[in-house]
Amino acid sequence: DQQVKQNSPSLSVQEGRISILNCDYTNSMFDYFLWYKKYPAEGPTFLISISSIKDKNEDGRFTVFLNKSAKHLSLHIVPSQPGDSAVYFCAASADAGNMLTFGGGTRLMVKP
Amino acid sequence: SQTIHQWPATLVQPVGSPLSLECTVEGTSNPNLYWYRQAAGRGLQLLFYSVGIGQISSEVPQNLSASRPQDRQFILSSKKLLLSDSGFYLCAWLKTRDTQYFGPGTRLTVL
Prior knowledge:
The structure holds 2 protein chains of 2 kinds.
Chain A: E1 4-5, E2 10-14, E3 19-25, E4 30-38, E5 45-51, E6 56-59, E7 62-67, E8 72-77, E9 86-94, E10 101-102, E11 106-111
Parallel strand pairs in A: 2-11
Antiparallel strand pairs in A: 1-3, 3-8, 4-5, 4-9, 6-7, 7-8, 9-10, 9-11
Chain B: E1 3-7, E2 10-13, E3 19-26, E4 33-38, E5 44-52, E6 55-58, E7 64-70, E8 73-78, E9 87-96, E10 99-102, E11 106-110
Parallel strand pairs in B: 2-11
Antiparallel strand pairs in B: 1-3, 3-8, 4-5, 4-9, 5-6, 7-8, 9-10, 9-11
């Protein structure tokens, strides 16, 4: 049973517009959420995280929103740039810490 | 600053051959270390993690094994590779609570 799901395998966005990547989870014990960006043949790069005590965290062009009641989080990228084209993974951690459960990833393509 | 290394970067091996992938971390001591695999078009699957020397936990039963002979060294091994072992292998370390940082990865192709 997948505890973290990214239901959109791919997303195409025009340069300069907003990219919204979604992630759903089922385990109510998850209390920390992360987004990673991955280019082909490279390791994932940590982007941004959010604790369950918050509903929003912002870092430059990247904002993560958390809706605990819906067990849903999203990553907003504004404005989108061609260099943002990559696979994005969401991940979640429970109170025990240090173990991450990853979603299946969403491939973002930003068109110039 | 801390860095994580993996080698080799790419590897092509015949079915039935042994495997040894190495991961080392610099700039920290006694880190939690992780091995993941990303199969083609799939997400990240946790294979093993280690909280210290000689301590290995396996998440997925398979023909792979892991060892941690030194504090900052994590090795992924197999005695006989299968075709299904092909994938992108990633090592990660736990920098802060819940936040893992990944190495550059090893692309393994089993023919």
